[in-house]
Amino acid sequence: MKLCHFVSVFLTGSLLLGGCGGKAEPISTVEVLPTSTPTSLPLPTSTSIVPTSTFFSTQPLATPTLPLVIATPTFADIQRYAVILVKPEERLTIREGPGLAHRVVGTLSYDATDVWKTGRQIQADHTTWAEIERISDGSLKGWVNAHFLTQYVAAESFCNPETEALVRQFEQAIVQADGRLLASLVSPIHGVDVWLWRTGGAINFDAAHARWVFHSTYVHNWGVHPASGQETRGAFREVVLPALRDAVAPAHEVRCGDYSVPGITEEQAWPAHYRNIHVYKIYKPGTPGVDLDWRIWLVGIEYVENHPYLFALIHYQWEP
Predict the structure, then answer these.
(1) For the chain, which ranges sit under pLDDT 70?
(2) Are 214 and 248 within 8 A, CB to CB?
(3) Rounded to an integer, what distance in angstroms lies between the CA atom of residue 213 and that of residue 215?
(4) Which of 201, 249, 277, 297 has minimal Cβ neighbours within 10 Å of its Cβ?
(5) What whole-number distance in Å separates Cα of residue 121 and Cα of residue 143?
(6) Are the C-beta atoms of residues 27 and 17 closer than 8 Å to each other?
(7) Domains annotated on the chain, with CATH
(8) CB 301 within 8 A of CB 185
(9) Residue 289, pLDDT score
(10) Residue 166, phi then psi, degrees to nearest 5
């Protein structure tokens, strides 16, 4: 079961991107909103927060003291944005005005980075529309679905003390099972996509749900195990948390901008629709003499209002 943050997104020509799956399908030139509503994960009640051991203590945890520094992106970059969550075979529509009734004046490719927000945003058709400008298109202006934009950060400025501090705070949240800290690190716009298996699919947690993942008993379908071919079902604390805790064991390494995963290409390791999101790699090397028990989490980070937040977590381990 996957939490979706949007109802629909309309693309140009004969492609529609909509619903939770984001699958491009042939449609007519008439654009209509689907009648279904987004699926929501339940927030825990008093009966669902039941710690099974002292590990899941409900006692207050220490406030993090890791220092933060001023974000690296310069003032000139603050209004520059990039496209995300659009697949290579699709294009994001630019409209003359905010809403589906306005004509299409252009499109953006899945990897576009030359997008500037003007600062104007309007709610229309159950969607937040942002006015943008493309200098490369002769100062073309128009409106796009803001869900598919993220603040642009150049690769060379991404590896900095602030993004590293975010990763260290994330590790602290995992070790201490601190839901409050984890919730504060999650993107306030897109939440965080969690992939247990690359052969499965992402489950999205917004800040409200991230706060409770260490206690919640809600069972998710994490997708097909790449080795056994069987579906993996279970609560975050039962299935994902052990893999995260193993990765942040004392011998692990943290590498900025490293997308490499043994046995697969970088293009396979990091989804194309995340292309404009940069990563850190949390890597636990294999045990000497065993070697195959290595573990990797790719941690995608996006900037929101000039501050970094967790955007995606993708897990990798040795596959026979």
Answers:
(1) 1-78, 137-138, 320
(2) no
(3) 5
(4) 249
(5) 9
(6) no
(7) 8-36+73-151 (2.30.30.40), 155-317 (3.10.450)
(8) no
(9) 86
(10) -60, -45
